[in-house]
Amino acid sequence: MKEISNPDRAEVLVHALPYIQRFRGRTMVIKYGGNAMLNAALKAAVIEDLILMNCVGIRTVLVHGGGPEIEHMLSALGKESRFVNGLRYTDEETMEVVQMVLCGKVNKDITALIENSGGRALGLCGIDGAMLKARKLSGGELGLVGEITSVDTSVLENILDAGSIPVVSSVAIGTDEDEGKVFNVNADTAAAKIAAALRAEKLILMTDVRGILKDPRDENSLVRAADRAALEALKQSGVISKGMIPKVDCCLFAMDAGVKKAHIIDGRLVHALLIELFTDEGIGTMIE
User: Fold this and answer.
1) Which residues 6+ apart lie within 8 Å of 231 measured at CB?
2) Strands, DSSP E only, in the chain?
3) What is the number of H-type helices and E-type strands within the chain?
4) Exposed e or buried b per residue across 202-225, where buried means at least 16 C-beta atoms within 10 angstroms of its C-beta
5) 240-261: per-residue pLDDT in tens?
6) Superfamily grouping for domain 25-287
7) Scanning 28, 81, 84, 208, which has its CA 20 to 30 A from the CA of 288?
8) CB–CB of 165/121 below 8 Å?
9) Can you state the angle between helices 244-256 and 187-198, rounded to 10 degrees?
């Protein structure tokens, strides 16, 4: 690898300066999942990005999932997974595993990585401080899978005000007729709801694709920026389909609630967060 000269290093920092000035003191919500959570090098890069963002004054909230880890634990326990229309059915036993894996091992592993790398973080889940309240998803075919009804940001605000990174696992507490229950909730949706409640500057969803692609078979067909009208046209034409539809819908929901911009970026690329935030070109799809 060619060594970078000191003048080149300085030029990189100077180029990032306007973005640092613009985003200092602003809140950003990052949804972290997919391959970036499983690959050690990518995981280390994400942690470095988060710490740098925090160090330059960006109030950063990290929301994570953990589907592969849940699947691994269920398999180890001899529990067969059941899916309904491609979504995991969550019975009481599965919910116990979800809570144990997401709120326990995955959440604390991420928190420890940030702390061990020189950052400040506090791990919590949607149950803590009744941050995320939910009711059973309409229809009930998925068992203890919930839809978020409200977000209490007070705990998050306290952590952010203290200069730390909240690390949030996507589990919610039941409300109304579901009081006393714990629900598995979609991490993209949780991130969007939290971003909306915080009136965040940005919502960033890390995925396993480059972003929205005009041709799913061609990663060079990236849509770099799109507004609502363009997104609706891409939906109608079938360009936005399958798993990308709920991600786009999460972004639009957040922006309707006051989030200024949303991004869908490729978590498989090293330092994807920094490239998206601190360069003119970015790395994924920006929704504006």
Assistant:
1) 240, 248, 252, 287
2) 27-32, 59-64, 83-84, 87-88, 121-125, 132-136, 146-151, 165-169, 171-174, 182-184, 202-207, 225-226, 261-266, 285-287
3) 10, 14
4) bbbbbbebbbbbeeeeeeeebbee
5) 998 899 999 999 999 999 999 9
6) Acetylglutamate kinase-like (3.40.1160.10)
7) 208
8) yes
9) 10
The tokens describing 139, both together, are: 């229809």
Q: How many CB atoms lie within 10 A of CB 122?
A: 19
- What's the one-letter identity of residue 148? I
Q: What is the pLDDT of residue 4?
A: 78
Confidence at residue 86, expressed as pLDDT on a 0 to 100 scale: 67
The residue assigned the tokens 């420890």 is: 112
* Chain Cα centroid distance, residue 230: 23
What digits encode the pLDDT tens for the residues 164-221?
Answer: 999 999 999 999 899 989 999 999 999 999 999 999 999 999 998 899 999 888 888 9
pTM: 0.94
For the chain, the domains span: 25-287
CA distance linking residue 256 with residue 252, whole number of Å: 6
Has residue 87 got a pLDDT over 90?
Answer: no
130 by Cβ neighbours in 10 Å (0-12 / 13-18 / 19+) ranks as middle
Q: At what angle do helices 228-236 and 244-256 cross, to 10 degrees?
A: 160
Distance (Å, rounded) from C-alpha 86 to C-alpha 157?
Answer: 35
Q: Is the distance from CB of 203 to CB of 29 less than 8 angstroms?
A: yes
Q: Which residue in 216, 221, 224 sits closest to 264, CA to CA?
A: 224
The residue written with tokens 């940030």 in the block is 114
SS3 at position 248:
helix
